Amino acid sequence: MTFLPARLIDVGDGLNQPRLVLTSTLWPRTPQGEATKYMALSYCWGILDGTSKLLTTTHDTIRSRIENIEVGAMPLAFQDAIAVARKLTIQYIWIDSLCILQDDARDWQTESSKMAEIFSNAYLTLIAAAGSGCNDSFLISRGLPGPSCAIPLKMNHELNVEGEFSLRFRQHHGRGDKMADIRGSRWITRGWTFQEERLARRALIFGSSKFFLDCRSLERSQDSDRYQSRPAWVASATGNLGEDRVPEPESTATAQVWDDWQTLCSHYSYRELTFPKDKLPAFSGMASRFAKKVHSQYLAGLWRQNLMHDLFWTPVTIMTKPSNYRSPSWSWASLDGRI
C-alpha cells in the first residue's frame, strides 16, 4: 500500500497559490497507476525572534491553510522549496511546520513517529544546508571553482548569434567535497536533520557553494560528471535504511550491523536539539527502519539482542543530565553530550 503523510502542501502552478491538503482526500496513485509523488524538505528552523518567524499550521490556521498559503508570506527557504518542486513538476511537498499541527501534542507525536515513512517514501528529499535557518534562501548563486576565461562567439549565418562562452578548468577534490561544503552549516548540527538525510531515497543537497545529488549508491556534485560510490559505512549503516536502499532484511544480524548502529548513535550524539525531550523522537525513524534489519526489541537507543555490547557506550565529553526524565540511566539517550 502506498504511504502518504497525513497532510501535504499542493505547490500550485504559479497562477494558483500553494495550499494544505489532507491526503485522505487524495488518490494514492495517479490514473496512470503511478504512486503519488511528494517531496520532503529538510531544513533547520533557525533562531526565531520578533522579526523572524516560522510559518506554522495550528488549529486556528488550518482552515485558511487549506484555502491557500501565500508564497510571499513564507520564509525564504519555503519559497525556494516551492520553486524547486514546481520546476521538477512534483505537485506535493511535505514541510514539518505546515504539515504537523504545531499546537497539538497528540498530532505532533503521531506524525513525528512516522518520520521513517515520510522521508523514505518521499520521491526526493530537498536539503537546505545553505544558510542558518528557514529565513535564508538556499537558491543562491553558486559559481563553479577554478580559473576561467571568456571567449567571444559570433555566427553570421542564418542563426545570427553573438555573445561569449566560458571555458573553465575544473578541479576535482575527491569524495570529501560534499562534507567540506556543508561542514560549517547549521543544518548539519541539528538533531532532527540527522535521520532526514539518512532515510531519504534520494537527496538534493544545497550547500554553501555547490549542490549535490545523492541516491542509493552514488553521489554527484554540480561540477562533476563522474559518479562516486558512497563510502562503505554509509551504504551499510545509513544508505541501506531507506525504502529504496535496503535489500530484504537479514534473518540474523551480523557483528557489522551492530557496529553500524553504534556508529550511528555516536554521530547522532554530536547533534544539537532545541528541545532536549526530542532526543529519542528525533532518532526514532532510524530505530524503526533499523528494526526491520535486526528483528530485535528496541530499548531506548539500545537493542536487546546486542544489549551487552550496546551498554559499553563511553562519554567523549562531559555529559549533563536533563532536568526531566527522558530515558533509563543505562541509555546514552539519558544524558546530553557526545559518546
UniProtKB/TrEMBL annotation:
It holds the Pfam family HET. Residues 38-196 form the Heterokaryon incompatibility domain. This is HET-domain-containing protein. It comes from Hyaloscypha variabilis (strain UAMH 11265 / GT02V1 / F).
